[in-house]
Design a protein that fits this description.
Mean pLDDT: 96
Number of strands: 11
Distance between the termini: 17 Å
Low-confidence stretches: none
Largest sheet: 7 strands, mixed
Shape: globular
Oligomer: single chain
CATH superfamily of the largest domain: Type I PLP-dependent aspartate aminotransferase-like (Major domain)
CATH architecture of the largest domain: 3-Layer(aba) Sandwich
Number of domains: 2
Strand order of the largest sheet: 1-7-6-5-4-2-3
């Protein structure tokens, strides 16, 4: 094999099961629009069963909409949302959270390996903003699961952050674009990784894990969902033929496809990491826990890999030699092995 695109799991195709589900939905005849169809309602019930609790489900087409509208439901325009410095909502949403909240302030905190720490959050909240009209008012915390460093919050870590949130009256949101990858690594139930650990709202992602364009916002506290449907419509994400979003999620959840896809992506990342660890010049910037790797390699290796047809992103946040490698549900083991072989050859190791 020559070359493979490791830039992102967004470069991956779509699961055949999901494509088949879309064809079936297209042949099913006339159905009510805007989520009033039976399939959309069935997916809502299925998510409640999977998460073992009553919840409010709202479907959207993109992760940016899911995150931004979820945060708008938790935070007033004069509020503050605490997040990691490298989080997607802080770096990669083109100010959408600020826009959809009507001007809320993102307060970016540092933390090792892409994760917030309960102690650091407590110290940040101890600055005395609450109740002072000159300051943005603390309103919410947003975590990324799996993180932008490819690391995973354990349920006890999430619970510790949730406890801080409760102590200060803040809502807890999780950007779960790669929630399935995190869950596959943790081996716990969806409930244990979300509402049982204190999460209030989860952006449940499918697009990076085999869907075309399908995300769901899950509210574990009904009061938080009040008004969300109006925000969704105003934002242009009340899809008229919602059944085609629901069809993707239905197939995604059926027979555990979402976890099978994520498990494969994680396994390919672990395989890639194992192979690169044998190269003395390769250095890992973070633990490899889901399906992302951040590796620093000298120019000779990086340039040689590119010449061999492999694509990946340079990652300036990790230093001048750092690259990000992302595996997906459809990454073949042969592509991983070819990448390792190419890296070894250009490192002078064979």
């Amino acid at each position: 094999m020559t070359g493979w695109n490791f830039c992102s799991d967004n470069t991956a195709g779509a699961s055949p099961e999901i494509l088949d589900a879309l064809v079936r939905a297209g042949r099913a005849g006339a159905k009510m629009p805007y989520g009033a169809d039976p399939l959309s309602q069935e997916v809502e019930k299925r998510l409640a069963d999977i998460f073992e609790t009553d919840l409010t489900v709202c479907f959207v087409a993109t992760g940016t909409a899911a995150n931004s509208l979820a945060l708008a439901a938790l935070c007033p325009p004069y509020g503050a949302i605490y997040c990691h410095r490298d989080s997607h909502v802080n770096v990669d949403e083109c100010n959408a959270p600020e826009f959809f909240t009507g001007g809320a302030k993102l307060v970016a905190l540092d933390g090792p390996d892409g994760k917030l720490d309960a102690g650091a959050l407590e110290r940040a909240l101890g600055q005395g903003w609450a109740g002072v009209e000159h300051h943005a008012q603390p309103a919410a915390v947003s975590l990324t699961q799996a993180s932008e460093a490819g690391t995973v919050y354990r349920p006890d870590e999430t619970a510790a952050i949730a406890e801080v949130c409760r102590g200060h009256g803040l809502g807890l949101h999780v950007d779960g674009a790669r929630f399935a990858n995190a869950l596959a690594m943790l081996g716990c139930t969806p409930a244990e990784a979300s509402w049982r650990a204190g999460v209030d709202v989860l952006s449940f992602g499918a697009t990076k894990n085999g869907a075309l364009a399908a995300e769901a916002v899950l509210f574990f506290r009904p009061d938080d969902a009040a008004g969300f449907r109006y925000r969704r419509k105003r934002a242009g994400h009340l899809v008229s033929k919602m059944r085609f979003v629901s069809a993707q999620l239905d197939a995604y959840l059926d027979n555990g496809l979402w976890l099978a896809n994520a498990s494969h992506a994680n396994a390919m990342a672990a395989r890639l990491a194992d192979g690169l660890r044998g190269i003395a010049a390769a250095r890992f910037n973070h633990p490899v826990e889901a399906n992302e790797l951040f590796v620093s390699m000298p120019p000779a290796i990086r340039e040689g890999l590119a010449a061999d047809g492999f694509a990946f992103y340079p990652w300036a946040a990790g230093g001048p030699d750092c690259v990000r490698l992302v595996t997906a549900f459809d990454t073949p083991a042969t592509a991983v092995d070819a990448f390792i072989a190419s890296a070894r050859r250009h490192a002078g190791g064979g």
